[in-house]
Amino acid sequence: MAGHQDVRPDATVTPDVAIEAQGLSKSFGEVRALDDVDLTVPAGIVYGLLGPNGAGKTTLVKVLTTLIQADSGSARVAGHDVEEDAAILRSRIGLAGQYAAVDENLTGFENLEMVGRLYHMGKGPSKERATQLLERFDLAEAGGRPVKTYSGGMRRRLDLAAALVARPPVLFLDEPTTGLDPRSRIGLWETIEARVEAGSTVLLTTQYLDEADRLADRVAVIDHGRVIAEGTPEELKDRIGGECIEVSLADGEAGEDAVAALGPLADGQPPRVEGRTVSLNVRGRTGLVVEAVRRLDAAGVGIEDIAVRRPTLDDVFLTLTGRAAEEAEEEQAA
Amino acid sequence: MSTASIRTATADTLVITRRNLLRIPRAPDLLIGFTVQPVMFVLLFVYVFGGAIQTPGYDYVDFLMPGIITQTIAFGGYLTAVGLNEDLRKGLMDRFRSLPMARSAVLAGRTMADVVMNMLATTLMLGVGYAIGFRFATSVPEILAGIAILLLFGYAFSWIFALMGLLSSSPESAGALGFLIVFPLTFVSSAFVPVESMPDGLQAFAEHNPFTIVVDAVRTLFLGPPADYAVWPAVAWSVGLVAVFAPLAVWRYRRASST
């Protein structure tokens, strides 16, 4: 079959840099979805793109997978230019989307076989690969049933399997676990980790910061179409500095008093209240917890618990964008 | 285009055609739409309306079959409108566009599947027609030419429906839009009643309606005299519609994306 030899990853051709973008911009009418985005993704890692809905993550994935063309800038994936070598590039990538992009009226097997044929793997190898993937994704029994009888988790697994049919060296996963139950999420995470161990590069977009924390070797935070921070999760946490004190209040009404009492201790952002929990970033000075307790006591605020923790990516996101990931999401939805 | 890329495009088109045909038996509502419904219409027209419609020179069942097959086949493209719109909404189009397949294959495979479905519908309807008294009165080459014209006209409508499917906001509205266009066109034509029986204004429209031109050509090829119409305008209309709507649909497909 023509092009068959093109679909296998070939170590001698796979460059050290899996994805490289320079100055990508894309507007939809008035909206600047991508604004001068630079991105370098080394081969063989999971790279997380973080950002609220509408930040430009999906647009970036669409440009990198040749679904849309950028207004300006350039990008290479697996060594191929997204515009000039689009046809070859497509044989080197796998894409699993936000929606489970599989045909509901076909069986799981027929879906995977079709994708194999469209990668020009030939009839026999396509069938073989479909059987193999169904087994690996725990879908062997369901493989003969139309997809419309599948659960949400099964569809996602099939969608991911479809992206893996041609063993692509670069994998794009656009919010792969949105709407999944916790068990299915963990299952999917394990699959992604296994792919990377096998040598693939994964670009993952997500709104779930714990997901990025668990999976990503490096992350970029995107907001309003711009990359506003980039590095390993640890680097980003260090960058916002110090640690975080979390206080559980005895009385949910006392939030404002607690913020007033703790304000002088906070580093950068003022303390945040969420339900009965007040949290504030602090910069490593010993005795801060004791001082916090003393101040709250002086202000007459009763507490149930107080703890110090390392910042999470949620804190990073909040510090960088001025809003929590979920709030930003709601804002977009409104 | 190189030979290799033509071969690739053909192979990809066949994969997509097969995919669209595999879907049919699993979507019973569509299957019924293309089997039970046309048969029901044949029986309804022959036994309910037929007695009240004067078709000088023909038995009504002979007069009706070319018309009702043309209508059914024009509606065959409905599957394309609904199918493409679903692919678009559900993100399947994005998957196809990210694969190293020929860009033309998604639309070509979709419309090709309609041709196969239309062949089945035509066979079924001719079979039912035969059972209730329809008879060809011409030679085998003429009959085959008539069937070819029907399929070609259906193919043209598949491209019109393809464009509607890509432009519509939902599969339902894509289907409704198609219905709005095809329904009046088929009824204000020679498909079910002689054009001469219509009021003047309507008659002028009906005479130039491509449905009339195609139905008359097929009647000529299936029944012979008194039907004696030119066949080439039916071919010209069909080819012309493809020439206009296929590029429009392809243009729209290139720009289309799920968001």
Secondary-structure blueprint:
The complex is a heterodimer of chains A (334) and B (259).
Chain A: E1 17-28, E2 31-42, E3 46-50, H1 57-64, E4 72-77, E5 80-81, H2 86-90, E6 93-96, H3 108-118, H4 123-136, H5 152-164, E7 170-174, H6 182-197, E8 201-206, H7 209-215, E9 218-223, E10 226-231, H8 233-240, E11 243-249, H9 255-262, E12 272-274, E13 277-282, H10 288-298, E14 303-309, H11 313-321, H12 325-333
Parallel strand pairs in A: 3-8, 3-9, 6-7, 7-8
Antiparallel strand pairs in A: 1-2, 1-4, 4-5, 9-10, 11-13, 11-14, 12-13
Helix pairs in contact in A: 3-4, 8-11, 9-10
Chain B: H1 3-23, H2 28-33, H3 36-49, H4 60-76, H5 78-89, H6 92-98, H7 105-131, H8 140-167, H9 171-187, H10 200-208, H11 210-223, H12 232-255
Helix pairs in contact in B: 1-7, 3-4, 4-7, 4-8, 4-9, 4-11, 5-7, 5-8, 5-9, 7-8, 8-9, 8-11, 8-12, 11-12
